[in-house]
Design a protein that fits this description.
The complex is a heterodimer of chains A (473) and B (917).
Chain A (H helix, E strand, L loop, with lengths): L1 H12 L5 H4 L9 E14 L11 E14 L2 E17 L7 H4 L4 E2 L4 E18 L2 E15 L5 E17 L3 E19 L10 E5 L2 E2 L9 E17 L5 E16 L5 E19 L2 E19 L10 E22 L5 E16 L4 E19 L3 E20 L8 H15 L2 E13 L5 E13 L4 E13 L1
Antiparallel strand pairs in A: 1-2, 1-21, 2-3, 3-5, 4-9, 5-6, 6-7, 7-8, 8-11, 9-10, 11-12, 12-13, 13-14, 14-15, 15-16, 16-17, 17-18, 18-19, 19-20, 20-21
Chain B lengths: L1 H19 L6 E8 L10 E4 L5 E3 L5 E5 L5 E7 L6 E6 L3 E6 L14 E2 L6 E5 H6 L50 H4 L1 E5 L2 E2 L34 E7 L13 E7 L4 E10 L2 E12 L2 E12 L10 E15 L3 E15 L15 E19 L5 E23 L15 E3 L19 E9 L1 E16 L2 E16 L3 E3 L23 E16 L2 E15 L12 E11 L6 E14 L3 H4 L4 E10 L9 E9 L9 E14 L2 E30 L8 E29 L8 E16 L3 E3 L4 E2 L2 E2 H4 E5 L3 E18 L4 E17 L8 E4 L5 E3 L25 E3 L2 E12 L3 E13 L3 E3 L2 E3 L6 E9 L1
Parallel strand pairs in B: 1-7, 10-13, 21-31
Antiparallel strand pairs in B: 1-4, 2-3, 2-5, 5-6, 8-9, 9-12, 10-11, 12-13, 14-15, 14-49, 15-16, 16-17, 17-18, 18-19, 19-20, 20-22, 20-23, 22-25, 23-24, 24-26, 26-27, 27-28, 28-29, 29-32, 30-31, 32-33, 33-34, 34-35, 35-40, 36-39, 37-38, 39-42, 40-41, 41-44, 41-45, 42-43, 45-46, 46-49, 47-48
Classes of the chains: A mainly beta (473), B mainly beta (917).
Chain lengths: 473, 917
């Protein structure tokens, strides 16, 4: 039973818009089960890789989950509250930089950032004989801010709705469609009466939108996304599962000025392929991802005669390509007190701003391995894991063009990001988990994990710890 | 006329009492209450089966019905939205009938506000419904009323109530601030467990600063200060209230606190604006109950701004003592409550003067109340007597310390010592000396210390008569209200004012006389059954009068009579469908506040000479003439609102549709208006000795309280509530309103023209008086659809609300360009503006050039928002909720004045945990 639930949870936990995400009832042998848990999670990192993401963080989160499966119906939900603090974030005053990069609001001062975030995810699925259908709604909202100048406040939210259907019990085909809406209201205020730094609207690499640099401190991001995913799942003894997901995102960057001026648009297309196979105690996974992001800038003329800015033309200036391939093999035998994982991967990051031409390109290769051991006691279970990894750049290059408008600080930022991308890296991790059955209905779980990362070229070490305390009902 | 009315009321009650003496004592007594909450249900129908004997329950759910001699009868007790209950009983029995809400058949919580079932148009919000909208204060609950839309908690400014109106808003749909039409909120009464919240003596203000919208003066109750955690239910009377309630114009909010045994409950709420925690318990002490609650809120309206925070703590203790005797039930309800906001020093590290600039505001209100209620069982006519007493003491302190950098050679606005001070009759009341300059930079310390103290006493008797198929419930009572501010008022060094344009002078509020008023009321609730139809009428009159004012206030000193009537006709049920048609007419009156009766003195400073010698400041000379003006308006009247409404209710099982049309007219609301007059001063010809001067005159104004705020409100409110659709476990509520409001003034008004001709600013010499209306009109139409999905087996509740504002229209009313009159500086008199005045070099400029664009109607098209709240029970003790308002929004762009207007909306979100032990 527990194993079955675990598999279902894996499906739920998947970030992809897969049918399994919306239909966690694939395992018909799960009869009736209802549970809930509450978790407190603490994590901290002493440093960060990219200066725009900050130099370390700590987070505390409260997470509650509930699951109910009864015959042909399954209902589940998860809610969480997270309070976090990121240190020394520079050249970025926008939340969700991974999502919006490079079209972010920035200044040269930055500072520590506080964040509160709320997440909710819930779904329902129903099985009609061999046919199953389900829907998932997930919502994330966050409030990031700083209490000394410059003071950004970013209210970001993302809503995803996924519907999915599957057919079959042994050989299952599934299809899922997901739509989403993203919004971020980003505004910066200054209290100082002694003068304030300029606000920039970055366009990628060493470029920014010069016309709107200065005191245009309010930006709004309005985006949508659409994903379609299909998969095949065979539930024979040696389980196989293959999925292909395509996702499209588009986000407008709007300046809150003169009836809201859309200054740029980010379009992104992503293709994900994942193949998994269980063979006795072995599990194999091959995944590949190709991501292409482009940025289109709107060029506006001057304000004339009291009229708002007039759009002259639009131009796609920024291009980014990312490719990743990962292969993984795991050994886990329920009858043996140990297991092992090994994986290797290749990635490519290629960014280009067309005119004037700036470019950075880095490809990397990496390997890591982990060993885990577990032991069951009378009313408790203990597991430990230890692992290590190494990665380095295979190829790397950078070129920037100096023009009259080149901002020297942005050149330095681009070079710093480039160094972070290509630095050799070594990491090691150690972790453990203990589960204690307190009563027939209540279990207590404690998890702890420590990771050490050394970034050779940057001569920086990152120490990260995670600690979690869960009560399961 | 007045005496005749009083005699008529007395005679009416004597007659009723006489008729009742002959009544028999074969009666079944009882009380109808809500099974879930224990709250009394007024106006429930009690019917004796197989007879035509029926009646409605009265105040407190009480009933007493004659068995007409039968020893045993079968009672049928029903109320819309509740399951009908049938009870066999003997005559002389005293019953408590507990009705169960129809929705509760499957053990669910009803999470939506509903239209009250009483004869007055009202919305009822219960504890369960409050839990479902994650309120920070009562302000957040107002979105549940028809016409309401959800909004974020606003804790950095006063939260005034707005009822049945669009509110004044600008072309972008943003609410306009200002006190011109604050009679809307001032005229909404708040009653907590029978005791009113009286704000008439609130005078906290910090003029001259636009940073803090904190003044509660003349604005009624600040709903931020009202925590919801100890409230059992709220009834918002939008229609014509009972004559028992008064000193209001718009409507009233009746708050009933939790008064029952409860387990320990705790609530923790976090959202992007703050954190709220509360705990409470109802202890049973024998037959009595003691309820204790503590609630704490720490809010930051803008998390980046540490300068501005709002914290609130509420501690409340309420005891309910019940003594049941053979002939009467006695209920005593003492309570004590403390509400405070504790904002300590607020420093901003980035401000240049962070070590000096400081702002602190605190509010502490302690209220004590006690109610005594005696329900007579044995008396034929007298059914009850009640007395309510309450007293509240508030201590508000507002402190601001800041560095002021006045303009060069700024004169101390109110001058230091010994300036020429004249009264309105132009008589010198001071000794003329030189005025002084403000320092180039100085530290100003300002304190506004207010201590409003209020007491309230009310006595009420209730009686009942039954004649065949007619039941009369009568009540009459008297009230006394007193408000006095005991604070030291505005305090600061007048030579170092908080700003260089400061117009006020320090004033001790405790020197202002107390406000007192008395009121009496008489009302009859008539219920008659004609066959299977029912007719109800609630008719009454209320008299209000202020006491102790100077005789100069002729109008305010008069008694004001408010007649009110509500009627409801319920047709016989056909196929389980019941239709009720009703309507009403009533007048409501709000007496003026202390500030309107005793407004702050205003000082007019006229500079006769300002010679500033920068090389030797001692050589500088400043001569100033000041007038002190007391802007009391002895012609002031009480503000009155006339309400009319028609309504229809259709109930089919648990489905219910209510539609109400209303029309309200406040023709004399309070507002400050600028009143111009001519003032003389010594204008100096030179700055060297010997100084010579001549007399000059100039026009200046003071703001004076008037009755010039006119508000016309009409609209249609509707609400449909479905029964729960079993297949999808969902109940649907559709509500909304069309509001058409006009905020204007018909009285002639002055408007200065700042044009300068021959080095003379026109407004110093001539100011035009313009007739015709001025103001705004606005129209809104909204529909909210709420889907309330409950799956109690697994403890899930989802509520999805789709809020639709179909349109918002606003238009500034066309104003006259040519003045009807003008005031002249040389004689201070008002002259008719003649046709040939348009040829005068100065007077021609009084013709205003108003661009047609400012009078254009602006329409903001549809805005649709989706809100979601999901609640999950975890175990038997906890409930966790997550909510997001405006999770999805659709706000199409539109064109205005040739430009595209794009709109974007940010969500409001948070989480809440409720624990019950």
């Amino acid at each position: 039973m527990r194993k079955c639930l675990f598999i279902i949870l894996l499906f739920i936990g998947s970030l992809q818009a897969t049918a399994q995400n919306a239909i966690p009832t694939q395992k018909a042998d799960c009869d009736t089960s209802t549970w809930a848990n509450a978790n407190i999670v603490f994590s901290s990192a002493s440093d960060g890789r990219y200066i725009q993401e900050g130099r370390g963080h700590h987070k505390t989160a409260f997470i509650a989950e509930a699951f109910s499966h009864n015959g042909t119906n399954t209902l589940w939900g998860k809610a969480s509250y997270e309070n976090s603090f990121r240190r020394k974030v520079i050249w970025n005053e926008t939340s969700d930089i991974q999502y919006l990069y490079p079209y972010i609001t920035a200044d040269s001062v930055g500072g520590n950032i506080r964040c509160e975030s709320y997440k909710f995810k819930g779904g329902y699925a129903h099985r009609f004989n061999e046919f199953a259908a389900g829907a998932t709604l997930s919502y994330r909202a966050s409030n990031e801010y700083r209490t000394i100048d410059p003071r950004p406040q970013n209210i970001a939210s993302k809503l995803l709705f996924c519907v999915a259907a599957s057919y079959g019990t042994t050989h299952i085909a599934d299809l899922a469609v997901e739509i989403g809406k993203y919004k971020q209201d980003n505004s910066i205020i200054f209290k100082s009466e002694k003068g304030v730094p300029q606000t920039y609207h970055l366009n990628g690499l060493t470029r920014h939108y010069g016309r709107f640099a200065g005191n245009n401190n309010k930006t709004f991001y309005d985006g949508y996304e659409l994903a379609i995913s299909t998969g095949y799942h065979n539930r024979l003894e040696n389980m196989t599962y293959v999925t292909i997901t395509y996702r499209h995102r588009s986000t407008e960057v709007i300046l809150n000025k003169d009836n809201d001026v859309p200054i740029s648009r980010i379009d992104e297309n992503t293709l994900l392929v994942s193949a998994n196979k269980h063979q006795n105690e072995w599990f194999y996974n091959l995944s590949a991802k190709y991501n292409k992001r482009k940025g289109t800038e709107m060029i506006y003329g001057e304000v004339t005669g009291g009229n708002a800015y007039k759009k002259i033309i639009e131009n796609t200036q920024y291009h980014m390509k990312q490719a990743e391939v990962d292969i993984k093999a795991s050994f886990n035998d329920a009858n043996r007190p140990f297991g092992a994982d090994i994986n290797g991967g290749y990635s490519l990051h290629d960014e280009e701003y067309l005119l004037p031409n700036d470019r950075i390109s880095v490809s990397r290769i990496g390997f890591n391995g982990a060993f885990n051991a577990k032991r069951g006691l009378r009313k408790s279970a203990l597991s430990l894991h230890v692992g290590a990894g190494i990665s380095a750049a295979l190829t790397n290059s950078i070129s920037t063009t100096n023009t009259n408008n080149t901002h020297q600080k942005l050149v330095e930022l681009t070079e710093a990001n480039y160094e972070s991308l290509r630095t050799p890296e070594q990491d090691a991790c150690l972790g453990g988990k203990i589960r204690v059955e307190m009563t027939d209905k209540v279990a207590l779980i404690i998890k702890a994990n420590y990771t050490f990362t050394h970034l050779s070229r940057l001569e920086r070490n990152i120490n990260a710890i995670n600690f979690g305390l869960s009560a399961e009902f | 006329m007045r005496r005749t009315t009083q005699y008529a009321v007395i005679l009416y009650f004597m007659l009723l009492n006489a008729i009742s003496i002959s009544a028999q004592n074969d009666i079944v007594w009882g009380r109808v209450v809500d099974k879930q909450t224990g709250e009394p249900i007024d106006y429930a129908t009690v019917f004796i089966e197989n007879t035509n004997k029926a009646m409605l329950t009265g105040d407190g759910g009480q009933f007493a019905i004659s068995t007409d001699g039968a020893d045993n009868v079968r009672l049928q007790v029903s109320f819309v939205g509740y399951q009908t209950q049938t009870i066999d009983c003997e005559r002389g029995k005293n019953l408590i009938v507990r009705l169960e809400i129809q929705e509760n058949k499957i053990g669910e919580i009803v999470v939506t506000a509903h239209e009250s079932h009483g004869i007055t148009t009202a919305s009822k919000i219960t504890r369960a419904q409050m839990d479902h909208v994650q309120p920070t204060s009562i302000s957040d609950l107002m979105s549940m009323l028809p016409g309401g839309m959800s909004h974020d908690p606003v804790t950095n400014k006063v939260n005034s109530i707005s009822m049945r109106e669009t509110g004044v808003f600008n072309a972008n749909g943003e609410a306009s601030t200002g006190n011109d039409y604050s009679i809307s909120s001032l005229g909404t009464a708040f009653l907590i467990d029978g005791a009113p919240i009286n704000t008439d003596a609130n005078m906290q203000k910090i003029q001259g600063s636009t940073n803090y919208n904190i003044s509660t003066m003349n604005r009624g109750v600040d709903m931020r200060t009202l925590s919801t955690d100890d409230i059992e239910s709220i009834e918002v009377i939008r229609g014509i209230p009972s004559a028992e309630h008064g000193n209001m114009t718009s409507g009233m909010v009746i708050i009933n606190k939790v008064r029952k045994k409860t387990p320990w409950t705790a609530r923790i709420k976090a959202d992007q604006y703050g954190k709220l925690m509360s705990i409470g318990k109802g202890f049973a002490i024998g037959k009595d109950v003691l309820n204790l609650n503590i609630s704490y809120l720490a809010a930051t309206p803008d998390v980046r701004n540490t300068y501005e925070k709002y914290k609130r703590i509420t501690i409340s203790a309420r005891q309910t003592i019940v003594r049941e005797k053979d002939d009467k039930n006695i209920t005593i309800t003492p309570s004590a409550e403390f509400t405070g906001s504790f904002d300590n020093k607020k420093k901003d590290p980035d401000l240049t003067y962070s070590d000096i600039d400081e702002y602190k505001s605190s509010y502490r209100r302690t209220a004590m109340a006690c109610g005594l209620k005696i329900n007579e069982k044995a008396h034929a006519w007298l059914k009850g007597f009640s007395a309510d007493f309450s007293a509240s003491y508030q201590h508000d302190v507002l402190k601001e310390t800041k560095i002021v950098n006045p303009k060069r050679a700024s004169i101390a606005p109110n001058a230091a010592v010994g300036i020429k001070v004249y009264n309105l009759e132009d008589e010198l009341i001071g000794t003329p000396t030189e005025a002084s300059y403000l320092p180039g930079q100085y530290q100003s310390k300002y304190i506004c210390d207010g201590k409003p103290f209020n007491t309230y006493t009310k006595f009420k008797i209730e009686g009942r008569n039954d004649f065949a198929n007619i039941t009369l419930n009568e009540k009459a009572g008297v009230e006394w209200n007193m408000s006095k501010n005991l604070g030291n008022g505005m305090q600061y060094d007048i030579s170092l004012p908080p700003s260089d344009v400061w117009k006020d002078m320090p004033r001790k509020y405790k020197d202002i006389p107390a406000l007192q008023s008395i009121a009496s009321f008489a009302e009859c609730n008539i219920f008659a059954s004609i066959g299977r139809s029912k007719i109800e009428a609630l008719a009454g009159v209320r008299m209000q009068k202020m006491l102790g004012l100077t005789d100069k206030y002729e109008n305010i000193n008069k008694p004001y009579f408010d007649p009110r009537i509500n009627m409801l006709f319920t047709l016989p049920s056909i196929a389980n469908i019941t239709i009720s048609i009703g309507g009403g007419y009533g007048i409501t009156t709000k007496m003026p506040t202390q500030n309107y009766i005793s407004p702050d003195y205003k000082y007019i400073n006229l500079v006769g000479l300002n010679y500033y010698n920068s090389s030797d400041i001692n050589q500088s000379i400043v001569k100033i003439t000041s007038y002190v003006i007391s802007p009391e308006n002895f012609a002031l009247k009480a503000a009155r609102n006339t309400k009319r409404e028609l309504r229809i209710d259709i109930a089919a099982g648990s489905n219910r549709l209510s539609i109400t049309y209303f029309n309200e007219k406040t023709a004399n609301g309070y507002r400050y208006e600028e009143q111009y007059a001519s003032y003389s001063y010594d204008k100096y010809d030179n700055h060297e000795e010997p100084l010579t001067s001549h007399k000059e005159r100039v026009l200046e104004y003071v703001s004076m309280p008037t009755n010039n705020a006119f508000i016309n409100k009409e609209g249609i409110e509707y609400q449909y509530q479905s029964s729960r659709i079993k297949a999808i476990r969902t109940a649907i509520v559709v509500n909304g309103a069309w509001y058409n409001s006009k905020y204007h003034s018909k009285a002639p008004y002055f408007e200065p023209i700042s044009t300068v001709i021959n080095e003379k600013a026109i407004q110093d010499y001539y100011v035009g008086q313009y007739s015709g209306q001025r103001g705004n009109k606005a129209e809104t139409f909204n529909t909210n659809v709420m889907l309330d999905t409950q799956i109690p087996e697994i403890g899930f509740t989802f509520s999805t609300t789709i809020e639709n504002m179909w349109f918002q229209k606003t238009q500034r009313l066309k104003e006259d360009e040519i003045p009807s009159h003008y005031i002249s500086y040389d004689d201070g008199k008002i002259h008719t503006y003649e046709k040939n005045d348009t040829e005068d070099i100065y007077l021609k400029h009084l013709v205003r050039q108003k661009n047609d664009a400012i009078f254009r109607q602006y329409t903001i098209p549809r805005a649709t928002h989706i809100n979601l709240k999901a609640t999950k029970k975890i175990g038997s003790i906890a409930r966790i909720s997550i909510f997001a308002n405006r999770l999805l929004s659709s706000t199409p762009s539109y064109k205005r004045d040739g430009n595209i207007v794009r709109r974007h909306i940010s969500p409001y979100f948070g989480m809440e945990i409720n624990i019950t032990l």
